Amino acid sequence: MKKNRRKGAKPCGPLPDALLGDDVALAASNMEAILESPSNLLAMDDRALLDKVEMRGVRMLLELNKPELALQAHAITSTVIVFGGTQIVERPAAERRLEEARRALAKAPDDRKLAREVGRSERLLERSRYYDAAREFARLVSIDNQCEDHRDFVIVTGGGPGIMEAANRGAFDVGCQSIGLNIKLPAEQQPNPFITPELCFQFKYFALRKFHFILRAAAVVLFPGGFGTLDEMFETLTLRQTHRMQPVPIILFGREYWSKVIDFQQMADDGVIADDNLSLFSWAETAEDAWRQIVEFHDRHRPTPS
Description:
The protein has 306 residues and is an alpha/beta fold. It is built from eleven helices and seven strands. Helix 3 packs parallel to helix 7, helix 4 runs antiparallel to helix 5 and helix 5 (112-143) crosses helix 11 (287-300).
């Protein structure tokens, strides 16, 4: 009589021949294999498991909760976001970059690419004033708003160089905390050295990084920058336009730059945005003016005691 066998199942092989006493050696070898097997690791210690595509949701949850717990532990109740370009550096660094570009061009005066780099470096040297302004702005914001029991208006940046460095540095200048939400990119970026060490976070997912930018935001200040700055600008404006985030002042720092990059009035004239959308943001030219606008905004929106 044939035994029932699951379709496609392979027949079991014969038991291995074993002499009396061999089971002790076999068991010891098997125990070693058990202890070395990834299945014996705690799930939270199994890096290969966490790196699997199927575990993406778990990784995203970790990126959601890790910064949140740290910000709560540091009693941070609100933040001021500073965005801006990575290439806008302090004046001495900008001068060195320009000098290097000029030396390179002097060796190959007919090289159009090198000539172009000299022109770009000259413009970036002019823009170095925004590094100083971002640093001063962060000093003003930080100095009077951080107590032991709670910290308001804590500067938060993307944690990288340029304008981000300047803002973290301004808080550092006056002995205050600041946050860096860093993300690894092809050409960037190590965290800048002025972030509070316990508040420098590394992200894999842009979406979770953006969530933490917005969650506690009391203001958004956008200095001149490139694609990354534009991305954050339009995300914030869209969230405010659609009432999907709390009311905050959105300040474009440096009208001369931004009015050339984006013609908001033309967008309204063409009917692709409402005229009222032009009031979603304001302009600032000095650190003092930007901070004044933030203070006045929150004074107007402070709940009236009952």
